[in-house]
Each structure stands twice: as structure tokens, then as C-alpha cells.
Design goal:
Layout (H helix, E strand, L loop, with lengths): L1 H17 L9 H30 L3 H24 L2 H22 L15 H9 L2 H21 L11 H51 L2 H9 L5 E14 L2 H7 L2 H22 L2 E6 L2 E6 L8 H18 L10 E15 L5 E5 L1 H11 L6 E4 H7 L3 E11 L3 E11 L12
Parallel strand pairs: 4-6
Antiparallel strand pairs: 1-3, 1-4, 2-3, 4-5, 6-8, 7-8
Length: 426
């Protein structure tokens, strides 16, 4: 229990320490960078303090002082970061110290071989810059590192011939320096790859969400055009069939039902209609309140547009006829269908929608609004295309705004089961 408590407090202390300089408003990327820098700074304090003790023990006080200088400056900079939150200052001084002090240590200890290649630790500076800066800024640190290596090579014959470190320790430091720098480089590389993979996964998830959302708003074909091309989307379709469905007595019903009940009712009915849209591969154009609009033949032309619209209308009617009453009342829709040419396109730049226009669409709307509750009213144009496979009863002529008298029909059933999608209609 005591060990568990100690472990818990130690982990809490470590987590809080890594959050030095981080703020709630920081982006995820900034928070990761700050955590990486602070964690690296604590490792620097530990490593340089140990190196300083070893150098001092073997009578290399200048080298020890350089290591402890790194320790003290890093500790003070971390304290300043914790007090002021000035992340950029701490980032800059850590990269500068990491670049220059190993180089100075190399000169003090007698060159590349005598110092056990301690200048290799300068390599951490450009690697750290790649994580903490943008790529263009990071390359400047790489150029500085290469310059330091070149200068180290030129100065190597001019420094003292040896130092007080035993040969065995020099060899040990070689192993530690090379393995340490290599390990840190591998850790940083793994970090890069993990972050890249994570970013790609998140990007794919967001792309899928965006694609699904776009397909909920626009037809597949139109969504593809909108993503790949910058042009006005407007197409003429010679043969389409358009269906409108509207809830009868919607206004009185909204007064009787609670808002949640009304929404749930429409959601249930329209969700079933949506399943038919998918089943018959037609296109839902829009819903406005209790009004539902769907089309066949646009934006995907198909020769059986009138037939498939009739099958869907009959299944909609069959579902409404058999569903339970609501508040003791039967839920009825007026359904109207018309066939003919139409223009389809995308309206707007924000909150855009795909819509259909034309005489055929207006007449289909009139078929619904001037229809009979519980009935499917169709025009002559639709009747002529479905008469061989469907049972239609003449209603006679009715006045249509802007068109005068028009002959209409009631669609009541099928003469035989269609060879296309199974409708389940008797």
C-alpha cells in the first residue's frame, strides 16, 4: 500500500512537471511540443550533472564546469518557463546550449577521439528543432550542426594531446555517447512516424465523416463534382419522375402533440421513407417540415424512373395504412407524382443543397397539394409510362394553377410484381 502511494505521488509529480509551460488554450500540437521539450530538459539536467561529477572526479574541472553550467542554465530556464510561460525563450536556449556546449567540451577534452566524440550530442539540437519548429527553421539548426563538425575537424590538431580520463573510461564514454545519441535519434524518429500515422488515421476518419456528411446532403455524383471541380453545377434531365408527400392535418397535429412527440413521429415516418430511397436507388431531394420530396432519373438517368417512383409511392402508402394510429387518429399523407424534364443543380455556397426545377417539378407539387388524403395522385405523363404494369383509377380533370384543367389518376396497385426491386406490395 505504501509503495502504491509512493508510486502514485511520483507519477503525479512527473505528470505535473511535464506540464510546465502548458496552458489549457494550447493546441494539441503545441502541448505535445512543450511536453517533449520539458521532458528532454529534465533528462539534460540529470545527464549533464552525472557527466560533470565524473569529469570532476577524474580531474577535469573545466569539462565538469561546462557540464554543470548546462545543468544550472537548463534548471533556471525551466524555472523561468514555469513562472512566465515563455516557451520560445526556453526552446531557443536549449537548442543553442545543446549545439555549442558539446563542441566546447570536445575542444576542452582534447579533440574528437579524446572526448569520446562528445560533439555527437550536438546532433540532438537539429533533431529537436525538427520537432519544435517548422521544417524550414529546423534546417538552419542542421546547417549549424554540420558547420560545427567541420570546425571540430579543423581544430582537432590544434587542441591538447590528451586529458586525465582513463582509456577505459574514454572507451565507455564512446559507447555511451554513440548509443545515447543513436537511441535519442531513434526515439525521435519513432515519434515522427507515430505522429504521422496518427495524423493519417485522424485524417482518414475526418475524411470519412466529411464524405458521409456530404453524401447526406448531396447525391454521390454531385458530391464528386463539387469536391474535384469548381464550376456551377446545373444539368438538364430529359426524363425524370418527381414525388411529393405531405402530412395531412399537420398544423392541428402540432397543437395536439408535444414538440418532441411531433419530431419523433416525423422522424419515424421519414426514416422509413429514407429506407425506401436507398432500396429503390432514387434521390431524396429535401424535407421541409412535413413535406418530403424525392426524384428518380436525376441526377442518375434511368429509363424506369416512373415505374420505380410508383413502386416507392405504393410502399409508402402501404406503410402509412398499416402503422398504428397517433393520438387515436390515423396518419395520412397526400402523395403526388409527375414525370417530365427537369433541371438539377446546387444552390448556394454555404449550407448548399441539391434541388430540381422545372414545370414537371411544379406540377408534381400540385399533384400532392391538390390530392386526396391517403391517395397517390399522378398526372397523365406518369400514367402513360406505368399503365402497363400498374392499376390506376381515373380521377377526372382538376384545375391546376398556371395549367388550367388537367386529367389525373389515382395509383392504387400493381398488375404484376415488378421484375426490379421487391416491393412487398400486394
Amino acid at each position: 500500500m505504501i509503495l502504491r502511494t509512493i508510486k502514485y505521488h511520483f507519477l503525479s509529480l512527473a505528470v505535473n512537471a511535464l506540464r510546465i509551460g502548458s496552458y489549457p488554450h494550447d493546441s494539441q500540437e503545441d502541448r505535445l511540443r512543450k511536453t517533449l521539450l520539458v521532458g528532454g530538459s529534465f533528462l539534460v539536467i540529470l545527464a549533464t550533472a552525472i557527466y560533470g561529477i565524473i569529469y570532476y572526479y577524474f580531474n577535469e574541472p573545466v569539462a565538469a564546469s561546462i557540464s554543470w553550467l548546462y545543468t544550472i542554465v537548463t534548471a533556471l530556464s525551466l524555472y523561468r518557463l514555469a513562472r512566465t510561460g515563455q516557451y520560445r525563450f526556453h526552446r531557443f536556449n536549449q537548442l543553442v546550449l545543446g549545439l555549442l556546449l558539446p563542441f566546447i567540451q570536445t575542444l576542452v577534452l582534447g579533440g574528437f577521439m579524446n572526448s569520446s566524440a562528445v560533439v555527437l550530442w550536438s546532433f540532438i539540437s537539429p533533431i529537436g528543432a525538427m520537432l519544435l519548429y517548422k521544417s524550414r527553421q529546423a534546417m538552419r539548426w542542421w546547417y549549424a550542426y554540420v558547420a560545427i563538425l567541420i570546425v571540430s575537424g579543423f581544430l582537432d590538431p590544434l587542441v591538447r594531446a590528451g586529458n586525465n580520463l582513463p582509456p577505459g573510461l574514454i572507451t565507455t564514454f564512446f559507447v555511451l555517447n554513440i548509443s545515447g545519441v543513436s537511441s535519442i535519434a531513434i526515439v525521435f524518429l519513432k515519434y515522427f512516424l507515430d505522429q504521422k500515422d496518427l495524423a493519417y488515421r485522424l485524417l482518414r476518419i475526418e475524411e470519412t465523416k466529411a464524405q458521409d456528411l456530404l453524401l447526406n446532403i448531396l447525391p454521390r455524383e454531385i458530391a464528386g463534382i463539387l469536391k474535384d471541380e469548381k464550376r456551377t453545377i446545373a444539368d438538364h434531365f430529359e426524363e425524370t419522375s418527381v414525388l411529393f408527400a405531405d402530412l395531412v392535418g399537420f398544423t392541428p397535429l402540432t397543437a395536439e402533440l408535444a414538440p418532441v412527440e411531433m419530431v419523433n413521429l416525423l422522424n419515424e415516418i421519414f426514416s422509413f421513407f429514407d429506407s425506401l430511397v436507398e432500396k429503390y436507388d432514387v434521390e431524396k431531394i429535401r424535407t421541409i417540415g412535413d413535406n418530403y420530396m424525392v426524384a428518380a432519373g436525376a441526377p442518375r438517368p434511368r429509363p424506369d424512373h416512373a415505374q420505380v417512383m410508383a413502386w416507392m409511392a405504393l410502399e409508402m402508402s402501404d406503410y402509412l395504412r398499416t402503422r398504428p394510429n397517433c393520438n387515436g387518429k390515423r396518419i395520412e399523407f397526400r402523395i403526388g407524382i409527375n414525370s417530365g424534364p427537369a433541371v438539377g443543380g446546387v444552390i448556394g455556397r454555404k449550407k448548399f443543397v441539391y434541388d430540381l426545377w422545372g414545370d414537371a417539378v411544379n406540377i408534381a407539387s400540385r399533384m400532392e397539394s391538390q390530392g386526396v388524403p391517403g391517395k397517390i395522385q399522378i398526372t397523365d405523363a406518369t400514367y402513360e409510362q406505368i399503365r402497363d404494369g400498374f392499376i390506376c383509377e381515373p380521377r377526372g380533370t382538376i384545375p391546376i394553377k398556371g395549367k388550367g384543367e388537367m386529367r389525373t389518376w389515382f395509383l392504387v396497385g400493381v398488375k404484376a410484381l415488378p421484375s426490379g426491386p421487391s416491393s412487398g406490395i400486394g
